[in-house]
Amino acid sequence: MHFGHTLIRGTLIKRYKRFMADITLADGSVVTAHTANSGSMSGCCTPGSEVWLSPADNPARKLKYTWEMIRVDGSLVGVNTSHPNALAAEAIQAGQIPQLAGYETLRREVKYGRSSRIDILLESTTKPPCYVEVKNVTLFRDTGTGGKTALFPDAVTARGAKHLDELRAMVAAGNRAVMLYVIQREHDGLVRFSIADDIDPHYAAALQQATAAGVEVLCHTCTMTPSAIHLATPLPVAL
How far apart are the C-alpha atoms of 157 and 142, rounded to whole Å? Predict the structure, then answer.
């Protein structure tokens, strides 16, 4: 996924009201950027951090910039949760996720279940449909083993638990269902992916039930630059 414009470097002043952040640009001016992330962004909103913004294409938009990335412990981390679906679709179509290869069509945002939309629906004339739910991961903790664990969620997510129940129902109906966690961060320093059950035990329990019912779990890191993001190396999953 290439950005339409080269990203603009800045320094984070503060994030507030969940969807807004004040940022100082290189020329000293201060702008307010849209933050497309409803989570806590724990560890990814430290004042004084290097951040990267994309300019809005729509001249009528109130906020002229969108916050895309932040540098954490030397690595760029993508905070825009609108990107993972596109990143996953791009990688699937390019054959970069072997577990999701072999389907003839890919559709996005397809209605299913109880008033939900599946992020990606893969279909084939020779096998059952595959329902793929995609989540963005930005929470990292030291593991004590020389690396960091990527974790989801970073805040309580009743919606996320509902999605897991929907996926479990798809498996029960004879379909395939996959939970794909996209870590918008380079693999460097990450050793595994797991669930932050201390933050949302209900989500953790829902995922355990889903995997026991046959829902598959995949996790991938990304390559991150101020010009493009691409899905990259898979990360071991420890549930």
Answer: 23
Find residue 69's DSSP bridge partners. Answer: 52, 78
**Whether the Cβ atoms of residue 157 and residue 172 lie closer than 8 Å to each other:** no
DSSP β-ladder status, 176-183 and 130-137: parallel
Q: State the pLDDT at residue 146.
A: 72
Residues 10-19: pLDDT tens digits?
Answer: 999 999 998 9
- The answer on pLDDT for 58 being more than 90 is no
- What is the C-alpha to C-alpha distance for residues 199 and 99, in angstroms, rounded to an integer? 29
- pLDDT surpasses 70 at 115: yes
Confidence band for 147, pLDDT divided at 50, 70 and 90: confident
Are β-strands 229-234 and 216-224 bridged in parallel, bridged antiparallel, or unpaired?
antiparallel
pTM across the whole model: 0.94
